[in-house]
Specification:
The protein has 170 residues and is mainly alpha-helical. It is built from eight helices and no strands.
């Protein structure tokens, strides 16, 4: 799944704005502070959602243990799919700008979704999953899609050029 996400993100052509930026030095961090902000926010959201589903899904949705585990798995994978859109731009709030130009991105996202549907609905023994109803699929998609507005809100949080606690280093 991560390989497909990396491939999908690597297929975006560089924008003119990106090409006008100065090159990144070898000494600079591979993961910028902006990236850490976004990763932390998505991780916090996903951990919270998955923990809620782990402990409250049966009472919220009235499902069996196996359906509960399938919904957790499904929400996790779908969160990754929605996060592929969020990760297209570290700073820009409109992550959908220019998305129609990249057909390969859509193909890869489509393959990921098709593989997920096949695993949940048809490969029950292999993946140890249970078939989900339409309403359960809707709940999984709805819960997972919350990562998009969260990403949009998080991008309003300013990130300093230097770490906050850099003054402690000598």
């Amino acid at each position: 799944m991560d390989t497909m996400a990396a491939l999908a993100l690597a297929t975006d052509k560089p924008t003119q704005e990106l090409m006008e930026q100065p090159p990144v030095l070898r000494s600079e961090r591979v993961i910028s502070y902006l990236m850490w902000r976004n990763v932390f926010a998505q991780a916090l959201f996903q951990v919270a959602v998955l923990l809620i589903l782990q402990f409250k899904c049966k009472s919220i949705f009235g499902v069996s243990d196996k359906v509960n585990n399938t919904m957790i798995f499904n929400v996790f994978v779908l969160c990754q799919v929605f996060n592929e859109f969020n990760a297209r731009s570290v700073e820009k709030k409109n992550v959908f700008k220019g998305i129609r130009k990249n057909k390969l991105f859509w193909v890869i996202v489509g393959i990921t979704i098709v593989v997920q549907v096949v695993m949940v609905e048809f490969l029950n023994r292999f993946a140890d999953t249970e078939r989900l109803s339409w309403s359960q699929w809707g709940a999984c998609i709805g819960i997972s899609s919350i990562s998009c507005p969260i990403s949009w809100v998080v991008k309003f949080i300013p990130v300093p050029a230097k770490p906050i606690f850099s003054f402690l280093k000598k």
